[in-house]
Design a protein that fits this description.
Strand order of the largest sheet: 3-2-1-4-5
Strand content: 5-15%
Largest sheet: 5 strands, mixed
Order of helices and strands: EEEHHEHEHHHHHHHHHHHHEEHHHH
Shape: globular
Oligomer: single chain
């Protein structure tokens, strides 16, 4: 076998190729892009034994192991497409392996390439190869992640807007419960300071509420007008003007984010709807199109990626970890995990309580054992991941009776 360490940067890759015995065969710095990949293929070919020339190319490529600190990008895609077995090594693992070889703190790109080659030569059994996900699965992952990032960005801007209003216009917080709602954004855009808000007419407020499809419009409009016209403490005029400019900027950003979130959500749904596993995911209680897309995207769709349900649970971070030393043994939540997947699974567990009697019964069993709400949701998510794995493995839709028979029998 040949083992390739690839320490990547934005504009170049430091490459080292070693053989089975750890002997360095070649070191190079290659440019990013097509030229670099082509030269890497040539370097690997130049190190192959002459008697390999008559072998099947796919068989030869499988004997090349590549270690790199990322699992994304066109470079990694090209390595996978060539048939090499690519290992995405966590940078933290590389840092710890570096300390194993040297305690001086010295570091260089070439040295890191050597470390990566040694990791895949000696310890590749302890690392996960880059999954062979389909292009459709990768598209779902990309769009679902971006959609989630936009939602997180919106939450940050709403928090900034709330903080600013609290300092000079607290009546707005009393008037608008959801600062990212269309009516709240429209009225704050029209009247970003207390003086302008007090002058808003009933007709303007009513029109904004109707466009936002609110109910009991007349009563709500009157209540808003009363709140906005009530006397309150004011900041000096120059400060109020500065605050209102900040609010106007935040409102414009949130409006734009709302628009893009809706548009990208539709794209996520289109990609997900074409996936072969879509019906299985949507059959599970608590999973809608967006949440199912996030879950599928983070798990991937390589059918051979997870050996069993336990492996999927470990990757999800829902299974607990045990720390034992001497007579002390502690079971803890696994916090070193895929944050996006963990967020999706926690939401899935919560949403499943509304559509699954079995999930609800299991949750209440945990709560009756004095387990906290978040911990109970985490254990419920762990059970749901196992159920999902079984559905995908057998290519069958979710069945409430099959999934929770033992739980329902215990509560009967």
């Amino acid at each position: 076998m040949l083992f390739v360490g690839d320490d990547w940067a934005e504009g170049h890759h430091d490459i080292e190729i070693v053989d089975d015995q750890g002997e360095v065969q070649v070191r190079r710095r290659l440019p990013e892009g097509l030229e670099g990949v082509t030269r890497l293929h040539s370097l690997i070919a130049s190190q192959l034994p002459e008697d390999w020339a008559d072998r099947d190319p796919s068989e030869v490529a499988a004997l090349v192991k590549v270690g790199i600190e990322t699992d994304r990008g066109s470079w990694v895609a090209a390595l996978v497409a060539a048939g090499y077995e690519v290992f995405a090594i966590n940078p933290l693992s590389v840092a710890r392996y570096r300390e194993r070889h040297s305690t001086s703190g010295a570091k260089s790109d070439a040295a890191d390439a050597h470390l990566l080659a040694e990791i895949v030569r000696l310890d590749r059994a302890h690392h996960r190869p880059v999954a062979q996900d389909t292009d459709q699965g990768e598209a779902i992952k990309l769009t679902a992640r971006t959609h989630q990032s936009l939602i997180w960005d919106r939450s940050r801007h709403v928090a900034r807007l709330r903080s600013t209003l609290r300092e000079y216009f607290p009546a707005a917080l009393q008037a608008f419960e959801d600062l990212d709602a269309p009516d709240a954004l429209e009225l704050l855009g029209r009247a970003p300071d207390p003086d302008q808000a007090a002058r808003l007419s009933t007709a303007v407020i009513t029109a904004a509420l109707k466009r936002a499809r609110r109910r009991r419009v007349d009563d709500r409009a009157q209540r808003l007008q009363n709140i906005l016209r009530a006397p309150e403490l004011r900041q000096p005029a120059v400060l109020q003007s500065a605050y209102s400019a900040v609010v106007s900027s935040e409102v414009a950003i949130i409006i734009a984010l709302n628009t893009q979130i809706d548009r990208l959500g539709a794209v996520v749904g289109e990609h997900f709807g074409r996936h072969r596993d879509a019906e299985i995911y949507l059959s599970l209680p608590g999973l809608g199109v967006i949440l199912a897309s996030r879950t599928l995207g983070e798990f991937g769709d390589d059918p051979d990626r997870y050996a069993d349900a336990k492996a999927r649970k470990n990757y999800a971070g829902t299974s607990p970890i045990t720390r034992a030393s001497g007579t002390k043994k502690v079971v803890l939540a696994r916090y070193a995990r895929n944050r996006r997947l963990g967020d999706a699974l926690q939401q899935w567990a919560f949403c499943s309580l509304r559509g699954s009697p079995g999930a609800t019964a299991y949750y209440h069993q945990l709560r009756d054992r004095k387990i906290g709400h978040e911990a109970a949701l985490r254990q419920l998510a762990n059970r749901l991941v196992g159920i999902l794995h079984g559905c995908l493995k057998t290519r069958t839709a979710y069945d409430e009776t099959t999934a929770w028979a033992h739980i329902m029998a215990a509560t009967a």
